[in-house]
Amino acid sequence: MAHSQQTAPFDYVIFGATGDLTMRKLLPALYNQLRIGHVPEDARIIGTARSELSTEEYRTRAQEALEHFLPAPHKDAALIERFLKKIHYVTLDGTKEDPASWDDLHTVLKQSPADRIRVFYFSTAPQLFEAISENLHRFSFITPQSRVVLEKPIGTDSASARAINEGVSRFFKEEQIFRIDHYLGKETVQDIIALRFANPVFNAVWSAEHIQSIQITAAETVGVEGRAAYYDTSGALRDMIQNHLLQVLSLCAMEAPADLGADSVRDAKVKVLKALRPIPPEKVASETLRAQYITGTMDDVKVPGYLEELGDNSNTETYAVMRAYVDTPRWKDVPFYIRTAKRSHKKVSEVVVTFKKTASSLFGKDGEHNRLVIRLQPNEGFGLALNIKNPSAADFSLQHGAMDGRFAPADGSLIPDSYERLMLDAVRGYPALFIRRDEVEAAWAWVEPTLQTWAANKVPMTHYPAGSYGPKEARAFIATTGDAWHEDMKN
Predict the structure, then answer these.
(1) Residues identified as active-site
(2) What domains, with CATH codes, occur in the chain?
(3) In sequence order, which residues have a C-beta less than 8 Å from that of residue 175 and are 6 or more positions away?
(4) What pLDDT score does 361 carry?
């Protein structure tokens, strides 16, 4: 799935070029790809937004962003100057139908050969995707070599997701549409495939016969802060579970694809999403849990609760957990716990695979579950907890021994940011790490009954102090199937 060759020349047109995502992720990602030799010298980056800026003014903003967001080892003044020269800026409201407002973009793009690859990156609100696509078509910007990258979220429910997909598909073919989920661009997420299928020691035991449960957690120490107004229209389930964490689940649960081609991998993931056991409204209260953080203490500093940050009353969750079952022979009755939280005790994204205890009576009740922990971030790597003999015990008793490994490049360099791979895979026309339309719609179909039941307040909102691992009710929730959260397990 890795691609390291230099790309063909391209024009990267970013709608929403003055926004936080562009400055924090997209421009640094393209700079780093230039730094390692993947971007050709005649590639161009064309930023568009409604702000009245000159190209030089925009380059100044871009330089400030690179200085702020690039890791220190990657900063090179001469290279930054080379990169900035690739950047152009056009003042443009992508939703306007006035032909004259598109003249400047026409002028810039005409400076490239007609067969140049064009990537249109929509870093805007999803409700604008169709209008921008229609204008690109109306004013003849879309060529056979064009691609469009759609930033998440793709809708807020099944109906809006279908509307967005259908709207964009009126003007771009499916093979031209790249729906981005930056979790799939993480090298550590892709390592799930390598760990599972490249290592017989795991491949042989990756099923209900040997696995008791799988936990998938994405927790952040930050609150919603400046994003409170946006977050309150989304919530933890829409923001993380419907997209990122269901993608991780699909990689954990899928059957081996025929190959690592885009269609094979995505076919395998879709089968998982369509095999998820439905959670009907009457079971939402027993199979899900939602909560908000309240005032708490983090690093000895008192931090406000969600409602204080929002400045209003709200039933939007900042913590969510769902118990999922994949109804395939491989995963018969194995629970997958999908959990996400704001203002958690620590920042962590991980997959915890708990294996069943050995059926041998040789050690009686001594010994604990073997566990594989795949650390997606931070401290990217894996840990394997095994039962070993306790060397300090008088009798033959067991203790946990830990094996640890790192997902680090062999040359000692930093792990690339997820956007680096994804942005150039769009140029290359390689869609394996992007979301296909049927994946988006299958994921929405599964979570929607829960969203509707929560919206009707048929499941109580629980609470947890900022700086904790979550609500106390979460321990009882997972204990109903005989499991415990990773942070509560014995080491």
Answers:
(1) 244
(2) 10-151 (3.40.50.720), 184-415+436-488 (3.30.360.10)
(3) 429, 431
(4) 62
